[in-house]
Amino acid sequence: xxxxxxxxxxxxxxxxxxxxxxxxxxxxxxxxxxxxxxxxxxxxxxxxxxxxxxxxxxxxxxxxxxxxxxxxxxxxxxxxxxxxxxxxxxxxxxxxxxxxxxxxxxxxxxxxxxxxxxxxxxxxxxxxxxxxxxxxxxxxxxxxxxxxxxxxxxxxxxxxxxxxxxxxxxxxxxxxxxxxxxxxxxxxxxxxxxxxxxxxxxxxxxxxxxxxxxxxxxxxxxxxxxxxxxxxxxxxxxxxxxxxxxxxxxxxxxxxxxxxxxxxxxxxxxxxxxxxxxxxxxxxxxxxxxxxxxxxxxxxxxxxxxxxxxxxxxxxxxxxxxxxxxxxxxxxxxxxxxxxxxxxxxxxxxxxxxxxxxxxxxxxxxxxxxxxxxxxxxxxxxxxxxxxxxxxxxxxxxxxxxxxxxxxxxxxxxxxxxxxxxxxxxxxxxxxxxxxxxxxxxxxxxxxxxxxxxxxxxxxxxxxxxxxxxxxxxxxxxxxxxxxxxxxxxxxxxxxxxxxxxxxxxxxxxxxxxxxxxxxxxxxxxx
Length: 527
Description:
One of its GO terms (molecular function) is peptide transmembrane transporter activity. Helices cover 29% and strands 25% of the residues. By secondary structure, the protein is of the alpha+beta class. It has two domains: 40-256 and 494-521, 3-Layer(aba) Sandwich (D-Maltodextrin-Binding Protein, domain 2); 280-485, Dipeptide-binding Protein, domain 3, CATH 3.10.105. Helix 7 (299-307) packs antiparallel against helix 9 and helix 13 packs antiparallel against helix 14. The radius of gyration is 27 Å and the shape is globular. The model has no long low-confidence stretch (mean pLDDT 92).
């Protein structure tokens, strides 16, 4: 009798397991996938963070951490558009000079303290304070901020500025944590590596090496995050000195994801990860200093330089095809591909003199490879080219500041859906700290750049951008090459990370609260 009961129990268990298996498969087949809470995303990041502070962040590692731990009044969506985060809503005055922002009700910092308008005013005041030496200071010059009430802030601009909403993505600092630290001392504060934020995640722990550098960080969900608790339970970050060591761990399964991968390394990754090709709002160009090299002041010579460059071949060889050729200052795909090395050769030969110049760039593998390819193409047309490279950290002081170059191979971040190319192309920005590194001057373009900053109508602004693009293209102050893609390796089971465009690499985390590793299936009739 006992044997029969035992057999019956076993048969029931087998039937139950089979039924559950069938039910699971039916769920997957006929159910709707729904994010579930849980899991750990192990991400590799290049470099070591020093300033987990939205006002001081300098490196990619800094900015990645800031994106996870802090948030602003606005936060970018998957299309790169600023959307309300801490803000509940905003209103723009008819003349574009006043932005009134209403905060969500019941906002809290990750330590449980209340977040209100005082925190926003404190952050903006600190960003503007010259003693703080914040890289964000320039964004807030000419902007006044006043508290209407605990949940309302009004920003007043001296001049209308259409991309102002992008400014409001600046991460907010907690006044109750930072207010006792003098502005001149904030870079030395221990709080830079012990942040209290209002972003999707909060810092749990840091790991340091023997020299004191941060080599790992663990983050947990911030239950007070204004856009809802993230689905992924924990984020584990590991910081690497170079891409090779990061990719080794990615290949062995020690980490799950890694951003800004060189296209040449993608083939080695295998099928354990999938590659997201994300549009990056950055232009790579060779900027011509016509004052340093008289021969390059000739439009015909600049035309020859442009005709000699096979941009499609450059994208294929250097980027593995992960990019788009451009023909103007904005990161828009080229309208026409102009490659005519024979005509270029004829223009150079007609000058009947040696035209030699130096091509200067930063010491990164990609930039140096591009420089070599450009040298070969230009020398094939009859130019004589010398290449000079500098450490990336030295470019500002040794090259950009003194404008010491004939042609400068460089990348410019033309960010946002409403980019502001003013600093790169307005004649008033030809001297440092302006970034008009082509030393370009065109009164019509100046006027267009001034107009597009203040124009509030989307259609009219789009027309102004087109005119800026076309006017600068005609003058050829630079040889516009391509806009690269941001390549992001993520685990095959990652859901919700449908990222279309980013201005900087750290923007990949803008929607991380929507990502998920665990899922459940709900039948459509119950959803």
